[in-house]
Amino acid sequence: xxxxxxxxxxxxxxxxxxxxxxxxxxxxxxxxxxxxxxxxxxxxxxxxxxxxxxxxxxxxxxxxxxxxxxxxxxxxxxxxxxxxxxxxxxxxxxxxxxxxxxxxxxxxxxxxxxxxxxxxxxxxxxxxxxxxxxx
Length: 135
Fold this sequence. Notes:
Layout: H1 2-24, E1 32-39, H2 42-54, E2 60-73, E3 76-90, H3 94-104, E4 112-116, H4 122-131
Antiparallel strand pairs: 1-3, 1-4, 2-3
Signal peptide: 1-16
GO molecular function, one term: copper ion binding
Family: Belongs to the CutA family.
């Protein structure tokens, strides 16, 4: 019984949080995420952003202007200019988003990282929820 209780805890906690959220209208921390994706240039960034939106993998993709990047690649210090995409989506879509972007991105190892959204404007978070289909 003790082992079963420990194994069921994450599921029961998730269900309790979802029920609480449905009753109170409150946001469950981590339900949505922001993914960061770097691109070589503006055209590639726009192409990837449009592809993400066409696949309904995000509610919104911001394309931020050029930034300088310093990084090690194959043992050498490199410097480049990159365009950053900020992708707002459901946390449950991050794996699918990452797989899709890797399949279309020209970099050998594209930067695709994400952070969960802890809090925010409830109306905006609801909009993300409505804009990105469930799994």
